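Posting for a labmate who doesn't have an account.
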Amino acid sequence: MDLSLAFAYLAAGLGAAGATIGGGYGISKLASAAMEGVSRQPEAAGDIRGMMILTAAMIEGVALFAVAVCVLLIFMSKTVGAA
């Protein structure tokens, strides 16, 4: 195995792990803030829930895009290494 290919695998793995951890952390902070907001103002629970779901979907989208880029890095490093 070529050393550059090994570094590409390492970078892809670390990038996917970072994206997953970052997405999980972002959603947990979002849920925490939403729970606090609902506990302070229960009549706004519907609005807070809607905003929380929309924002969580955006965070998941960014995390999924980052993981897709990491997977593409693996496949592109195989094709470049073969040439």
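Reply:
Got it, the structure tokens are right above this. The first helix runs from residue 3 to 40.
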